[in-house]
Amino acid sequence: MKILVTGGAGYIGSIVVEQLIKAGENVVVFDNLYQGHRAAVHPAAAFVQGDLADRAAIDGVMEQHQPEAIMHFASHTLVGESMEQPFLYLGENVINGLNLLQSAIKHKVRRFILSSTANLFDDPERMPIDEAERIVPGSPYGESKFILERLLYWLDRVHGLRYAALRYFNAAGASAERGEDHNPELHLIPIVLQVALGQREKIKIFGDDYSTPDGTCVRDYIHVLDLAQAHILALRALDQSSRLYNLGNGQGFSVKEVIDTAREITGHPIPAEMVARRPGDPAVLIAGSDKIRRELGWQPQHPNLRDIIESAWRWHKSHPHGYEA
Ligand code: UFG
């Protein structure tokens, strides 16, 4: 199948592209390289540098490549940034998604997969969080993804666009060739590994007064290769119907547990300093992913935190400066 992947030069997008190509699919990447890296794009994928703000550029790609499906990763993705710059999210994320969808409808694309987020669930009534949980976006970032989910709902009803919205919990880990390289890096596991590489002095732990067993926040870390498999399964199931899935391992680990595991793996003491809470961080986020397991037979192959961090460590050691040569 010919698949257009926006954001295919970014962390999750580039690894999904790699796995799509391994599965025999034909991929076109559309990315403005704002956060992504040209070197992250699998050499077997066609690459178009372009911006989703540019309707003519999107139409051009659709006309040239005639994709049968779209996977939409390109997005601003930082909860904290969205609280400071809401228009980047409620503006750009939404408008760019809208541009892509308008072009998709115009060019009669029938399948669409959206990268959505656990940030839809800021005030969960139950843990783990399943798809029946009420939606309370935690930030303009989460709201922007919710707006796109609602757009997809209506485009399915009105135009028959089949979609899957995959709400990622904490994507982590690496494949053999591709990993996490953000600038600035704000995510826990890569920062901890930068300390182990001697590139940072210490990790700052954002709060140890949460109501969790050790006082630090608990998150559900899911291996990026398992996320990639979920995309492939969801794509194949779209012929039957549209769907929404929460995607995580169903197991939570605290910030302290992540740091301790990284200490064991790297053999580095990884100094940590306790600092104030980061605004907007919920205490616990754990996914209930029974629905995708049941309906699509998805089964994480790398559910252990140790395996996830080990894969990231291998990548960071072999790419100490990320994708920069
Ligand atoms: N943390 C620290 N120190 C750091 C960085 C992070 O203590 O230097 C803590 C955070 O407070 C949090 C945990 O580590 O408790 C994980 O933080 P990340 O920034 O790695 O990830 P988040 O859980 O904040 O965010 C992730 C995705 C978002 C998504 C969100 C869903 O990166 O895109 O989950 O809630 F929206």
Structural account:
- The chain has 325 residues and is an alpha/beta fold.
- It has 2 domains: 2-171 and 223-247, NAD(P)-binding Rossmann-like Domain (Rossmann fold), CATH 3.40.50; 172-220 and 250-324, Alpha-Beta Complex (UDP-galactose 4-epimerase, domain 1).
- Helix content is 39%, strand content 18%.
- The protein has 10 helices and 14 strands.
- It has helices at residues 11-22, 55-65, 79-84, 86-106, 140-159, 188-196, 224-237, 255-266, 290-296, 305-318; strands at residues 2-6, 26-31, 46-49, 69-72, 111-117, 162-168, 170-172, 203-206, 218-219, 221-223, 243-247, 253-254, 272-275, 284-285.
- The strands form 4 sheets. A 7-stranded parallel beta sheet has the order 3-2-1-4-5-6-11, sandwiched between helices.
- α1 (11-22) links the parallel β1 (2-6) and β2 (26-31).
- α4 (86-106) packs parallel to α5 (140-159).
- The mean pLDDT is 97.
- Bound molecules: uridine-5'-diphosphate-4-deoxy-4-fluoro-alpha-D-galactose (UFG).
- Uridine-5'-diphosphate-4-deoxy-4-fluoro-alpha-D-galactose (UFG) binds next to α6 and β8.
Give the topology.
Blueprint: E1 2-6, H1 11-22, E2 26-31, E3 46-49, H2 55-65, E4 69-72, H3 79-84, H4 86-106, E5 111-117, H5 140-159, E6 162-168, E7 170-172, H6 188-196, E8 203-206, E9 218-219, E10 221-223, H7 224-237, E11 243-247, E12 253-254, H8 255-266, E13 272-275, E14 284-285, H9 290-296, H10 305-318
Parallel strand pairs: 1-2, 1-4, 2-3, 4-5, 5-6, 6-11, 7-10, 8-13, 9-14
Antiparallel strand pairs: 9-12
Helix pairs in contact: 1-7, 2-4, 4-5, 6-8, 6-10, 8-10
